[in-house]
Specification:
It contains seven helices and eleven strands. It is α/β, with parallel strands linked by helices and about 400 residues long. It has a nine-stranded mixed beta sheet, covered by helices on one side. A two-stranded antiparallel ribbon has the order 1-2. A hairpin with a 2-residue loop joins strand 1 and strand 2. Helix 5 crosses helix 6. The termini are far apart. The relative contact order is 0.03.
């Protein structure tokens, strides 16, 4: 009986604590939900603002962007081009989402037009671009080559990564030099037969199509200026025996095939192989290697001669400088000796003159006691004093001699 009230009290405490925790969690959840709602509203507002701004700048048609004059002007302004359309010679319209070519009539001065990676389905409305040299239409939805008759100065056309099944309508481009039509739907010889009517093409990219007939070589042979050819990614490579040698021999102007160049050595070996088989190719390759080794050796010898001449010139210059230095040293030594001799002569002359002057002074003093030749008034005072001093020295010496004699006698 005593345990029942305690159990009831314990259950009540647990109930109240559970309710309290539930209320706390509900408050927290409500706060989080409000925050999420605010964030969602904010993001919706941002998305709506972006969408509205985009709709203000462009006009949508079925999910694609129309190429309007206003959009073209805005693009020119963004890319810091001329706002006057006819003054621009290049225009970047790639990655814009256009589905149709239009409103380009005012851009008559364009020389390069980029339309890569849009949704274009047709080549059209390019009649006003008579100065165009380069046209880039890769990565679109084009399935036919057409409407290029007005582009008489077009030099390069890139129409890769489209859905073109036949090469056509290119004979009107008299100076077309580069045609890139990789990653399309070309399959048979008839699909590329139109290339025979395009003799100006020198760079041709047919890679990653569905070409499988080896007879396409006859079409390529009919292109007199073909120098660069790319057939990678086609089944025809596996069906042409000795693929690289065969194409090198049959395409006389070819300088680059697929992923590497065709060197003169490769062409000579391929032509020898076509005439005499593997033995002729081996002999021709040995001739080229011998010639290359000789050329390398001649270059080494020429370099050695140049170095030897430079060393000889340097040695000769050093000898000349040394001789010049020795000559200057001899001249300096001779000048020094002459100066020393001149100094010595001057010293001897000065000494001699000094001695002569001293002897002259001494001769003025008489040896006898009487001064008959030179009266006292004619002798200077200094000479008289000297004469008196000398006479006193004589008397002193005489007295000393007398004393010495006396002492010696004693």
């Amino acid at each position: 009986m005593t345990l029942l009230p305690q159990l009831i009290l314990l259950n009540c405490n647990l109930f109240f604590s559970y309710n309290k925790d539930v209320k706390t969690q509900e408050k927290a959840f409500n706060c989080m939900s409000r925050t999420d709602q605010q964030n969602e509203q904010k993001s919706d507002g941002d998305h709506k603002s972006v969408t509205s701004s985009f709709s203000q700048r462009t006009e949508e048609n079925g999910g694609c962007v129309r190429m309007t004059k206003k959009i073209l002007r805005d693009i020119c302004k963004q890319q810091k081009l001329y706002l006057t359309p006819s003054l621009n010679d290049i225009l970047y319209l790639h990655y814009k989402g256009f589905d149709r070519l239009e409103n380009l009539e005012e851009y008559t001065g364009l020389r390069c037009l980029w339309l890569e990676c849009n949704g274009l389905r047709k080549i059209e409305n390019l009649e006003a671009l008579t100065e165009l040299r380069c046209l880039y239409l890769q990565l679109n939805l084009i399935n036919r080559i057409e409407n290029l008759e007005s582009l008489e100065k077009l030099d390069s056309l890139n129409i890769s990564n489209n859905y073109v099944k036949t090469i056509e309508n290119l004979s009107c481009l008299k100076i077309l030099n580069t045609l890139q039509i990789a990653h399309n739907k070309l399959e048979t010889v008839e699909d590329i037969q139109h290339l025979q009517e395009c003799p100006s093409i020198s760079v041709l990219d047919l890679s990653h199509n569905n070409l499988s007939d080896p007879n396409i070589i006859t079409i390529l042979e009919a292109m007199p200026n073909l120098r660069v050819l790319n057939l990678m990614g086609n089944q025809v490579i596996k069906k042409i025996t000795n693929y690289r040698k065969t194409l090198t021999v049959r395409l006389k102007q070819l300088t680059y095939l697929d992923d590497r160049p065709v060197f003169p050595k490769d062409r000579a070996c391929a032509e020898a192989w076509a005439v005499g088989g593997l033995e002729a190719e081996k002999a021709e390759r040995e001739k080229w290697e011998t010639r290359e080794r000789k050329k390398i050796q001649d270059s080494i010898d020429a370099l050695a001669k140049i170095r030897q001449k430079a060393e000889e010139k340097k040695r000769q210059k050093y000898m000349e400088e040394r001789d010049a230095g020795a000559k200057c040293g001899n001249e300096d030594a001779t000048a020094t000796l002459e100066e020393e001799q001149e100094t010595q002569e001057k010293t001897e002359k000065f000494r001699k003159e000094s001695f002569d002057a001293h002897d002259g002074v001494i001769t003025l003093v008489p040896d006898r006691g009487d001064n008959t030749d030179f009266p006292p008034e004619s002798i200077p005072a200094r000479i008289q004093e000297d004469s008196h001093m000398s006479s006193s020295y004589k008397h002193l010496n005489f007295s000393k001699e007398l004393d010495g004699n006396v002492h010696s006698e004693e």
